Amino acid sequence: MNVGIVIVSHSPLVAEGAAQMVRQMVGDEVPLAWCGGDPSGGLGTDVESIQQAIERAWSEAGVAVLVDLGGAETNSEMAIEFIGEPRASRIRICNAPIVEGAIMAATEASGGASLGAVVATAEELSPQ
Amino acid sequence: MTVLTGEDFRQFVIAMAGAITDNAERLTTLDSAIGDGDHGANMKRGFDAVVGDIDVLAEKSFAEATKAAGLKLVMTVGGASGPLVGTFFMTLGKELPEGIDRKSLAAAFATATAAVAARGKSERGQKTLLDVLYPLHAAIAAGADAAGMARAAQAAAEATIPVKATRGRASFLGDRSIGHMDPGSASVALLADAAARVWAART
After folding, report:
1. pTM assigned to the model
2. Looking at this predicted complex, what is its ipTM?
3. Domains, chain A, ranges and CATH?
4. Would the CB atoms of A69 and B38 count as touching at under 8 Å?
């Protein structure tokens, strides 16, 4: 089973758009989910929605999460903690730009790569 | 030593939520200057949600209620402040003993502050809420009375004005973050003032 990809943006439009690009460029072999927006529907992120997105994209091979700004990362970390072990250690947040990172990670995942390889491929996009 | 109950927790929550509501507009104005302009609305949404649960929370022990309120804040605030403020209360609730004295309050507060630092991968001096939490802890540990705690928190929030942000959204602005109060610090000072008033009335 291929690694799943989750896209978490402050904006549901950005998250959905990035997911659309992944689907078109990479195809359907990768479990994919997105979420965006705060609990009132404004710009922001929501721990519960992130947990649900990870559930939707869940794969026994693990899930790579792409985030945009600070709160998306902190809320994703919180969501992973709430999901808890044994699954939490198979969910990784990528330090990568959200759109390009999602596409590179999904491309790598679609070839059956491990979670570590998927995350590493996305993170190649970030300057060290 | 003071034993606080769930009913005491109700008083703390009502006071803190009231302070956030009364100042939501000011917090959002501060956040518009150096952040994304949603801090007041986010904090208000979180504390309104805690107030919405208050009858259930008031039936728990003070520590359990504090923990549950922290979780509620994590789930409802929505911005980066949610996990930070929520983690503070979740950890405080885990650490508080049943009978609270100065020493156990200071110890629980220190652990909760350290948890916020770990959650935000941040430290003191970066223009974040930690810049109020650490001095407030120092005031508690040093034996300040309630008014002294509130003054220490307010002074610490004001001291963030000349600081250049190096963590959080404001850090994107670099030098332009100088000259504005950190909104998270302003929120913590408001919460501290509200909590200190309740504490003074109770003890």
Report:
1. 0.91
2. 0.82
3. 4-123 (3.40.50.510)
4. no
